[in-house]
Each structure stands twice: as structure tokens, then as C-alpha cells.
Amino acid sequence: MLKTKKIILNILLVILLSILSLNIIKIAYWVKDARHTKKIVSNYKDINVSKEINNKVIFINPPEDNNDLYYELVNEELLNISLDKYYSDNPDTVGYLSIFDTPIDYPIVQTINNTYYLKHSFDKKSNKAGWVFSDFRNNLDNLNYNSIIYGHKRKDGTMFGSLDKLLNEDYYKENKHHTINLQTFNYSYLFQIFSVYTIQEESYYLKPYFINKEEYALFLETIINRSKIKFPASVTIDDKILTLSTCLDNNGNRIVIHAKLIKKGIL
């Protein structure tokens, strides 16, 4: 009897040590990927200098109500940085994404699928931190009605690790927190946030195209009603929107941010 108990205890000990070893290995790889990601970000920190846009600026779908928050937000500066170095290092570069008062300040990449940059960094080396990337169906120089950008929610705050900050109603007390900047090689866009929520993994909000105006109107109504915060933003079928998506947890939940285009600068 004692011998049997000893064998069982030894087996349990081996199992526990195996689990511990696997967790240590996972942590080691996570730290390695995190360091690699931060090194890449650090390598580019000196080139992210905004320049004044001297070319044409277009205000998109101004609301009829002059008191609409749109008229304050539309005066925010447009992003205008040089993307040449990014493109030289990675020809998959298609733009740049920046959200005020968050670490989200990255070049955006795009390839022929939505899987490659889930496990590869900006330098195309294997890295589970991935990179911030555009849906392969997007054309950021000729915006779809719904343009989609993805990124992992990293615990160290890199990539879309700080996107949950946008779920907090207190975050929006400052007007600058209502906007998202997106730049391509040819255009600079300013978007106004109108919906934020968490949801189980699905494909509905990831639709870039719509059969007709009725389908798009229903889509807009659905994602507005999903928002956990009521935003002072009017959205119509004439608006084009930006969607940011990331994982919230290991249970398949997602964080989703939607914003409408309010300003466009020609570079």
C-alpha cells in the first residue's frame, strides 16, 4: 500500500515538474519576443517626427448641427511622418497608426492574408507578439466602407496591449481621446470614435464590403448599439469607418473600436 502511494506521489511530482518546466519555457519565449518587439520600436523612435501638411485638406461629412463634437475634433492635427525608412526595411508597410495618449504608434503592414503578422514581427522574424497589420482586403488609399486593423493585446502594453484603455468612459473626458490618426503614403486621415465594446469572436464586424446601403445602415446601427459608451457622434451611411480589433482574453473575447472618417489630408 505504501509502495503504491509512493509511486502515485512520484508520478504527480513528475507531472507538476513538467508543467512548471513548460510554463518557464513559455515565459522565456514571451520575454524574448517582448524584447525583440521593443528593440524594433526603439530603432525607429527618432524618425517619427510630424511635418506640417501643406496640401489640400478635406472635411468629411460635416454634421448639420454646428454644436456637434465633430467641429472641435476636426481641428486636430493630421499625422504626417516619413514612411520611407519603414518601407525600405519592410515593403509590406502601407501606413502608420497613432492613438493619442497611448503607446499605439506603429507602422502598419499588410500582406496577402490575415495570419502572417500574427506570428511575425515588423522585420519578418518569427515572433508571437506579431505586429499591427491591415486586413488583406483593405485598400487604405481608397478606403473601404469598413477598414480593419488588427494587433495582439500584449501584456507589456505593446501592439494593441493598451486598447482596453479605450473601453474606459473616463478616457474620453478629453476631446483628443476621441480621435485616431491613420496615415498612408498618399493620405492622412483623422477618425472620430463612435463605438467601443467587447464581444465573443465573430466575423460580423469584420466585413469590409456591403451589398447595398440598407445592409450598411443595419451594420452601423448594430455596432453603434453594441457600444458600452454612448458617444456624441452622428454616423450615417455616407461615412467610412475604421475598425480596430484585438483579443481581450484566452476565452475568445475581442475588444473592438469603431471610428468614422472626419478629415482627410492629401500628402
Task: Please characterize this protein's 3D structure.
- Helix content is 25%, strand content 23%.
- The protein is built from 4 helices and 9 strands, in the order αβααββββββαββ.
- β6 and β7 (187-200) form a beta hairpin.
Show the helix and strand layout:
Elements: H1 2-43, E1 57-59, H2 70-73, H3 84-89, E2 93-98, E3 105-109, E4 133-134, E5 146-150, E6 179-183, E7 187-200, H4 213-226, E8 241-247, E9 253-266
Task: Name the features.
267 residues; alpha+beta; Sortase, Chain: A; nine-stranded mixed β-sheet; globular
- In N-to-C order, the SSE pattern is HEHHEEEEEEHEE
| General shape | globular
Tell me the total number of β-strands. 9
The Rg value, from CA coordinates, equals 22 Å
Q: What name is given to the CATH topology? A: Sortase, Chain: A
Kindly report how far apart the N and C termini lie.
Answer: 81 Å
- Strand-pairing-aware structural class: alpha+beta
Overall pLDDT score: 88
Short description, anyone?
By secondary structure, the chain is α+β, with helices and mostly antiparallel strands.
